[in-house]
């Protein structure tokens, strides 16, 4: 359960407002508001003292000296939305994405910690999280139990001491997501110990079980998994509900399943909305042009979900599941003043947003009330090596074939790798993964990425190592040199000319700017790749998941070309 931050003097001051000895800062009067527990709409007045709601009901405060009173007659008020499954490093960072999301009513994140674990020691990560906690926004976190890829220093990053330090924090609400669950099924008692440690501390365990059979779901439930967000069909939802899982439905840039899943739930007449949540699951920036959790609510309403259920799925249900309704998900006495003011119940994008008692948006205007935080702790990517002719030797017999955006399988390479240029008549390209410090490389081919991409370089990847793809060795070298100049990012080069790029100057993987600024850069990159034969949905996720061993069937990792199903290295990395 999240830690209560109010001091005794704060609480005494809040109580004195009820007696009229002190005045609230803000009163929202004549508000038609959602009472999430009663599942009904009421009309009344909401008193706010700094970051806390001190009263909701028919009364007005006896003392209004210095109080701002806002008449909300004709408006609808709902709790601030909660995103329960945030990957906050998809080009954006936790601060920039929170600032962006708050403008559409999402004022609470439950966030993945994987990037923090990979980039910095716990002490520095915790210091950053403590700074974020001071914002007019609510941040909570997961504790990962595995890296989601093959790392030589996996046991160092995810040591027993490190994981338990994360689980000791009050703002860490869950363990997972369990992308490494096959290890658990194979008898990994270390992971099972962490699951039990999390549950003893009152934390949830989030699974990652795409396509899981009924027996697998039963086993994972016995091993301690409480919820899962991988339902892709109505049958997946039914199976998880029958085994007592909490179910989170996705509306993301690579899995936009939410609308058809909710339509199926409505059509079947299932009264299971109290056990459903929604997430955008780490979507890339441009997916959010039309919202975050408000986008999910809108999809729910369009699928025929009752408004009360739709709003609860994005607020109260999440708070109740994570045992924090004393603070979140409810417009009632004692909760954080996280409040969205809507034109009506069918318009989930708010006209005004209050988060922890601070007006962030008013009359559809961003009030620029979100303080900056120091992001320099992420450091930069200093590439102090060059790639030479001898590095571009492609002689491996096995390549990586893309089935879709994120699923890859092995294939037999027929093209000789001594050519400096490949034909654009086929969809095979050179593929390299290079250590960010220049110590090793892996050279192979990728099929199905594109037909006309000549030189492409990215330091945005699962591990922060450098991905090179292309038809032309010369353009691949050029793209790498540009990446080096930028201190990290994504670069597309053609005939020695830069076509488009995204600078990622924070650790080589994070954009140092706003989400609104990075969206057009991402769209330009996706458009340029599409023109050159990339026919999948989300190239950013392709880059992120090329190394991710929680997906089948073959991955290019720091250890080499890796067979996920056999859990072994097929072809090792080459030292430079």
UniProtKB/TrEMBL annotation:
Gene3D superfamilies according to UniProt: Metal-dependent hydrolases (3.20.20.140), Urease, subunit C, domain 1 (2.30.40.10)
SUPFAM superfamilies documented for this protein: Composite domain of metallo-dependent hydrolases (SSF51338), Metallo-dependent hydrolases (SSF51556)
Protein origin, superkingdom: Bacteria
Catalytic activity: adenine + H2O + H(+) = hypoxanthine + NH4(+)
Entry's EC annotation: 3.5.4.2
Enzyme class at the top of the EC tree: hydrolase
Signal peptide: none
Residue span, Amidohydrolase-related domain: 76-359
Keywords: Hydrolase
Adenine deaminase C-terminal domain sequence ranges: 406-567
Family in the record: Belongs to the metallo-dependent hydrolases superfamily. Adenine deaminase family.
Protein name: adenine deaminase
């Amino acid at each position: 359960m999240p830690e209560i931050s109010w001091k005794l003097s704060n609480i005494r001051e809040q109580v004195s407002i009820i007696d009229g000895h002190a005045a609230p800062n803000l009163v929202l009067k004549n508000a038609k508001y959602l009472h999430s527990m009663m599942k009904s709409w009421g009309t009344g007045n909401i008193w706010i003292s700094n970051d806390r709601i001190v009263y909701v009901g028919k009364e007005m405060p006896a003392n209004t000296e210095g109080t701002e009173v806002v008449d909300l007659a004709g408006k609808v008020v709902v709790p601030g939305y909660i995103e329960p499954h945030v990957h906050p490093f998809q080009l954006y960072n936790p601060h920039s994405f929170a600032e962006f999301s708050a403008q559409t009513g999402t004022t609470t994140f439950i966030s993945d910690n994987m990037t923090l674990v990979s980039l910095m020691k716990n002490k520095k990560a915790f210091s950053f999280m403590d700074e974020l906690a001071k914002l007019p926004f609510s941040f909570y976190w997961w504790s990962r139990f595995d890296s989601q890829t093959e790392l030589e220093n996996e046991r160092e990053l995810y040591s027993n001491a490190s994981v338990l330090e994360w689980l000791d924090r009050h703002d860490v609400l869950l363990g997972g997501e369990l992308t490494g669950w096959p290890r658990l099924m194979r008898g990994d008692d270390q992971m099972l110990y962490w699951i039990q440690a999390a549950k003893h501390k009152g934390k949830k365990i989030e699974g990652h079980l795409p396509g899981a059979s009924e027996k697998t779901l039963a086993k994972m439930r016995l091993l301690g998994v409480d919820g899962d967000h991988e339902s892709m069909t109505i049958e997946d939802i039914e199976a998880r509900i029958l085994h007592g899982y909490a179910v989170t439905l996705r509306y993301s840039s690579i899995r936009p399943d939410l609308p058809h899943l909710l339509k199926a739930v409505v059509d079947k007449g299932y009264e299971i909305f109290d056990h459903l949540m929604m997430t955008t699951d780490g979507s890339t920036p441009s997916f959010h042009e039309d919202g975050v959790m408000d986008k999910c609510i809108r999809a729910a309403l369009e699928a025929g979900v009752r408004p009360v259920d739709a709003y609860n799925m994005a607020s109260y249900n999440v708070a109740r599941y994570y045992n924090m309704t004393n603070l979140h998900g409810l417009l009632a006495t004692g909760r954080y003043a996280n409040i969205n003011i809507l034109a009506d119940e069918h318009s989930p994008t708010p006209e005004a947003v209050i988060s922890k008692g601070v007006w962030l948006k008013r009359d559809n205007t961003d009030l620029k009330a979100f303080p900056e935080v120091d992001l320099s702790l992420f450091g930069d990517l200093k590439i102090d090596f060059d790639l030479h002719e001898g590095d571009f030797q492609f002689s491996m017999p096995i390549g990586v074939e893309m089935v879709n955006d994120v699923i890859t399988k092995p294939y037999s390479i027929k093209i000789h790798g001594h050519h400096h240029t490949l034909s654009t008549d086929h969809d095979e390209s050179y593929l390299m993964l290079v250590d960010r410090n220049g110590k090793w490389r892996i050279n192979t081919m990728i099929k199905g990425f594109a037909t006309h991409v000549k030189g492409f370089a990215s330091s945005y990847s699962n591990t922060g190592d450098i991905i090179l793809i292309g038809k032309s060795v010369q353009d691949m070298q050029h793209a790498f040199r540009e990446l080096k100049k930028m201190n990290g990012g994504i670069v597309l080069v053609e005939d020695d000319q830069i076509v488009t790029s995204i600078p990622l100057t924070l650790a080589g993987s994070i954009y140092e700017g706003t989400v609104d600024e990075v969206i057009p850069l991402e769209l330009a990159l996706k458009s340029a790749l599409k023109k050159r034969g990339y026919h999948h949905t989300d190239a950013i996720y392709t880059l992120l998941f090329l190394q991710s061993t929680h997906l089948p069937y073959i991955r290019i990792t720091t250890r080499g070309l890796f067979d996920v199903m056999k859990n072994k290295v097929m072809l090792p990395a080459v030292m430079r």
